[in-house]
Task: structure prediction
Amino acid sequence: MDQRVQQVIVLMESSFGKQVSVTDLAKAVNLSPWRLGHIFKSETGIPPAQYLRVLRLEHAKRLLETTFLSVKQVMTEVGVKDESHFVRDFKASYGISPAKFRQSLPRIQSKDDQ
Result:
């Protein structure tokens, strides 16, 4: 894989909580946004913005599974500001809204529940 694409992926993975644009990523590897998009898509099969969205949704899913953060807190943690886009993208990827996904998880019983 192209070293610049690998570097951009590392930057994406370390930037969940930050707003990062394709322009910012392109500058980090001394490419134009168009050229980065072209190289990135040829290496990964998807454009950089879509790749970042997939990473954020995967991270959000893990947080919903492993933490007690609210959906809004998870959204903020993964760097998404628009709740309607987040819910729509999550539902498109996993077939269920984030809130319903959380509700569908097995509940851990405490000693008080037994």
